[in-house]
Amino acid sequence: MNNKIALFSFISREIQRFTRVYVQSLFSPWINAVLYIFIFGYVVGSRIDSIAGIKYIAFVLPGILMMNIISASFQQTAFSLYFKRFAKYIEEYLVAPLSNFELLTGHIIGGVTRALFVGTGIYVIAILFHAASIVHPLWFFFYSVTVSIIFALVGVFIGLWADNFEQLNILTTFIIMPFTYLGGMFNSVSMLPEKIQWFMKVNPFFYFVDGLRFSMTGVQESNMIAGIGIITFCILGLGGLVWYLFKIGWRIRG
Fold first, then answer.
1. pLDDT tens digits for 171-192?
2. Entry pTM
3. CB-based contacts of 125-130 (< 8 A; 24+ apart in sequence)
4. What is the percent of the chain with per-residue pLDDT over 90, rounded to a whole number?
5. What does the buried/exposed string (b/e) look like for 3-32 if buried means 16 or more CB atoms within 10 Å of the residue's CB?
6. Where are the domains of the chain?
7. Bridge-partner residues for 54, per DSSP?
């Protein structure tokens, strides 16, 4: 019972962490989404008839949504864990009645919750612009949550590894943003020359974006079984890795 109370308290604190700075954690991605939707829905979209049989904004929106889900879950866990180390109060959590698994679970739930807050806000904004739809609600929930879990785990790892705030942004700058853009966010696979289509198909972000696009529009270019396999492998592999790092106290125990 004590563990349940401690875990609930930890999760509540993680959620309060991003709701207290809602302008940065929530309003900022929502405002960016408005700009993306306006530019690609009304400026660029008015000059492009359709892609894969759907309006350009409907094709692009899942990529915008997925990019923000990824960024929100990653930033929540990476910055939260790093700041605990930086401010030297990680020890308070290590001596609390929480197991390594529970500590990891609390961080992940915090990351997923922030990602869902951000994603829900963007979806509501898209509705106001008449740009949103959901064809397969269960798949929409599946991709939103599982990809959030993956990047919450990545954030935990980076939060343990980083030695300064600059290193926390390395993954966003050099991996998340470029690979999301190159993962079919703005274009269909068929729009690329055949010689380089393979690059998109070996990019895991392509399966994340395309899976969410399928759930929202019914249009799919990737192999769903391969996408689910990649997601499962990432969750199990990253989950096992960061749990082990917590267990041995890597960079959190002197």
1. 888 999 899 998 999 889 988 8
2. 0.95
3. 125/30, 125/33, 125/34, 125/37, 126/33, 126/37, 126/61, 126/65, 129/37, 129/38, 129/41, 129/57
4. 68
5. eeebbeebbeebbebbeeeeeebbeebbee
6. 2-248
7. 51
- Tokens linked to 18: 């991003």
